[in-house]
Structure formats: structure tokens, C-alpha cells
Amino acid sequence: MLLTKVMTVVSAAVGRDDEDGQGLAEYALILALIAIVSIIALIFMGSQVSDKLSTVGATLQSYTP
User: Fold this and answer.
1) d(Cα 36, Cα 21) in Å, to the nearest integer?
2) How many domains does the chain have?
3) What pLDDT, in 10s, does the model give residues 5-37?
4) pTM for the model
């Protein structure tokens, strides 16, 4: 459903129905899929990533050259 809406918006923005527009729509779909996967990964792993970044930040702050 979401991908259909994205494809409709991209097709309307391009305003062409030739092969170049089709390639652009495919890139838009790939970009949308990557965004969805990234958001889902951040939802499930967000706290773990935050903990690791906090540890790295604390380690860097405590380092004295």
C-alpha cells in the first residue's frame, strides 16, 4: 500500500511514462525500502546502539592525552 502511494507520487512528480521515469520509480522504491528497514532496525536496536555510543562517549571523555 505504501509502496503504491510512493510510486504514484514519484510518477506524478516526473510526469513521464517512458523508460527513464520507470527507472526513477524503481530507485524511489529501493530508497523507500531502505528507509523502512532502517527505521525498523532502529526501533528494535535503538537502545543497544544508544548504550554503545554512550560507552564510547564516556571513554573518549575520560581519555587525557
Assistant:
1) 22
2) 1
3) 767 776 776 665 555 567 788 898 999 999 999
4) 0.48
